[in-house]
Amino acid sequence: VPYKNPTGLCFFDDKQMWVSDWVTSSIYKHKLDDALSVGQIVQLPGQPTGMAWDGGALWTASSWERKIYRHNLDATLSVAAEYPSPGPEPSGLYWDGVNLWVCDYKEAKFYRLKVSEEGLAVVNTYDSPGPHPIGLFSTAENLWSADGGTNLIYRHAKDGTLAVQNIYQAAPYENQNIKMSGMGWDGTAVWTCADENDKLYRHSLKGLKEKKF
User: Fold this and answer.
1) Contact at 8 Å (CB) between 53 and 96?
2) What is the CA radius of gyration of the chain?
């Protein structure tokens, strides 16, 4: 890909994947074709460290500003609203269909937030199994998280405890000196990225290597 510091991955629809890069302060709109070609690049005013699509609006987070932003779907993705982050270093966003989730890199927490006209309210706070969480997604059966400190992916019970049920590692992160910086789910496969690395990786859940737990 034409950038080296990807941090957020989200799927706008079944034809586009949007990726944020914190160094260029940009969002790259990829077409989901064989070349993963870039259809548009949008410059943002801040440094995005997480990104999510809720079906009607784009959300980004910045650990430098310690804020979460909701964007208009105009040509510049102008900011419609901004909110303080519940933690000091938001490093990943995820929309579960009802609530917005935030990973916090410094506090090793997940926050589940209710979105309303009044703002963002914390519904639940969970401890991350890794020291530096950077991404979340869910399947029908489980919630999944990724950690940039351990380069591991964790499968959680999809209940009030988020208990870890298993731990995995994707092949690109086993022997290379790269740090996972983002994770997304396209409905059939997991996508990951690493900081200071100009590649995106697509993984099947069955292709993840199980680690001792």
Assistant:
1) no
2) 16
Let me know: does 198 contact 1? Beta carbons within 8 Å: yes
Span 29-60, pLDDT tens digits? 999 999 999 999 999 988 999 999 999 999 99
φ, ψ of residue 59 in degrees (nearest 5): -120, 140
Q: How far apart are CA 195 and CA 205, in angstroms?
A: 22
**Is beta strand 209-210 parallel, antiparallel or unpaired with respect to 200-203?**
unpaired
Give the H or E element holding residue 91.
strand 90-95
175: confidence class by pLDDT, cuts 50, 70, 90: confident
Counting other chains too, the contacts that 69-75 makes at CB distance below 8 Å and 24 or more residues apart are 75/42
Give the span between the Cα atoms of 160 and 168, in whole angstroms. Answer: 22
> For residues 191 and 10, is the Cβ–Cβ distance under 8 A?
no
DSSP 40-57: EEEE-SS---EEEE-SS-
Tokens of 8: 């957020």
Place of tokens 């980004």: 60
Maximum CA extent, the chain: 47
Identity of residue 7: T
CA-nearest of 167, 176, 211 to 197 is 176
Residue 213 reports pLDDT greater than 80? no
For residues 172 and 91, what is the distance between their CA atoms, to the nearest angstrom?
21
The predicted-structure confidence for 124-144, as pLDDT tens digits, reads as follows 999 999 999 999 999 999 999
